[in-house]
Amino acid sequence: MKRIRKILVSQPRPAIGNTPYTDMESLFGVQFDFRQLIHLEGLSSREFRQQHLNPLDYTAVLLNSRVGADHYFRMMEELRLPVPESMHYYCISEAVANYLQKYIQYRKRKVFFSEHNNFADLLPTMNRRPNERYIMVMSDAHNDETIRMLAEHNIEVRPAIMYRTVPTPWPQEEAFDHDMVVLFTPMGVQSLKQNFPELKDGDKLLACFGQNTALALEQAGLTPVIKAPTPEYPSITAAIRAYLEEEMKREDAE
Questions:
Q1: Which of 6, 36, 120, 242 has its CA 20 to 30 A from that of 248?
Q2: Is residue 143 part of a domain?
């Protein structure tokens, strides 16, 4: 079996210096490269209009990221719609709420945020405003869990798709010489197959995080050698470390 030398992690490089990845580089003599295989792309105003949604019909916006805030204000500008001074903003975190100062004059009576990164925290505030009408800025590959949770509490939220996740082309002049590729989303799997359509099972060692990512690999005819999370390995870094440890043991036994 070929020794693992280079591993591609399809995420941004961690901001902090010492990480489980750097520990593994020192311990096992491997190199981790970090590159996203996907990126976000805003919908055009024409595409947005196909949802038959007028943002001015709503009194509040739910924002689950700073990216969502960027695309909300971008879309309002492209639609040539004034953002009402009375608009309320319900944010997944204080960081997102503070980010709104880039676009609006921050006032506590119009900006609300969760202290635990969970929209359920905002239910008491929402219940005090029974006449509020909500939209939630989302991507095309969104999760409806928040909308379902709020619906269970008789709060109706209309999804507003304003951006999409798309594959990032791999530069033709750049070698794809990694021994292992670590994938985190079904769209990442799609990007891998789109960039390398001839890729077949066994060409690269594949690691994946999440059941949906594992399913996408299976549907693409590819088999991961590493899956996480599992009861034994709750993180992808723990699973990769265990695999590299086993590889080292095999080398020592030969």
A1: 36
A2: yes
pLDDT string in tens for the chain (254-residue length)? 568 999 999 999 988 778 999 999 999 999 999 999 999 999 999 999 999 999 999 999 999 999 999 999 999 999 999 999 999 999 999 999 999 999 998 887 899 999 999 999 999 999 999 999 999 999 997 778 999 999 999 999 999 999 999 999 999 999 999 999 999 999 999 999 999 999 999 899 999 999 999 999 999 999 999 999 999 999 999 999 999 999 988 887 77
Model-wide pTM > 0.85: no
Nearest Cα residue to 92 out of 73, 71, 120:
120
Say which CATH number the domain at 173 has.
Answer: 3.40.50.10090
Cα(23)–Cα(7) distance, integer angstroms? 14
Domain-embedded: residue 1: no
Give me 228's structure tokens. Answer: 């996480």
Cα first-last separation, the chain: 12
